[in-house]
Design a protein that fits this description.
There is one protein chain. The protein is mainly α. 74% of the residues lie in helices and 0% in strands. The chain has two helices and no strands. It is rod-shaped and about 55 Å long.
Length: 62
């Protein structure tokens, strides 16, 4: 469905004049983007903190 929405947006000569394209293609795609970006950011933060927790402290002087 996402691909069809993208095609509708790219095929439409003027999204601001075509309410149906905006309502049924642009708005759902913007919602998808928020979810995808949020998941990607969450995965990157988890990776960052896992790496941070695995780091060792400074070497002690012997």
């Amino acid at each position: 469905m996402r691909v069809l929405r993208m095609l509708a947006v790219f095929a439409c000569p003027s999204v601001e004049r075509h309410r149906d394209v905006y309502q049924h293609a642009v708005v759902p795609l913007m919602g998808d983007a928020r979810g995808l970006v949020a998941e990607e950011v969450k995965a990157q933060v988890v990776t960052l903190f896992e790496a941070w927790w695995q780091r060792k402290g400074p070497a002690t002087a012997s």
